[in-house]
Amino acid sequence: MPDSTMLQSQYAAQIQSDLDSNVAEREHIAGQISALQEQLSVLENNHALLASMQQAIGTPALPAAGKAPKKAAGTPAPRIPQARSGSKSAGRAAKKQARPAPKAKASGAAPTLRELVAAHLATSGEPRSAAEITAGLTDAHPGRNIAGTVVRNTLENLVAKGQAQRTRQNRSVFYTAPEGGDTSTSAKPADSDVKKGEDAVTPVTTD
């Protein structure tokens, strides 16, 4: 019966393969169990050591992990004391003191932009455009913020007050000191309202 013999041999080979796989899996799991047991043993030894050290220094033992302490019935939760009003007042006063003190205004009377423009016209001796006057004042006074639009408005105000003259050459506008050299900006009381620095002047639209 060759067929039965062959079938028996196949079964025997399959069983042997299953036994080998089973042995290998058992050895693998046994190795994992052995490693876990070793880790557990180390953790238990560390726990015992830490517990003995805690007892030696007199620190009360904490509950084991995962077990929350039971709250006694009827025991109110401790209230966090609120800060007193005096402490709040002290904190506010400290903040006020920490704020920087306002800067004192300079006591020296610096020339206004109107005065600078008039003086520049008086000393230039020839017609100058608003851009040229702005560049000259910027070079002469690098510490001041002199804007071209403010200079142009100042020039137009001087022209309106007769303290400067305006001429046109093609599409360009030039300014000169008035004939006779009267460029004083203090001749009219209305000039006293001009602010120092960049003068707050009313823009004048020119064609």
Automatic annotation (TrEMBL):
Gene3D superfamilies xref list: Winged helix-like DNA-binding domain superfamily/Winged helix DNA-binding domain
Polar residues bias locations: 164-173
Coiled-coil region(s): none
InterPro entries reported for this sequence: WH-like_DNA-bd_sf, WH_DNA-bd_sf
Highest taxon, organism lineage: Bacteria
Database matches in SUPFAM superfamilies: Winged helix' DNA-binding domain
Region Disordered: start-end pairs: 63-110, 162-207
Compositionally biased region (Basic and acidic residues): 190-199
Bias kind Low complexity: ranges: 63-92, 99-110
Protein name: Regulatory protein
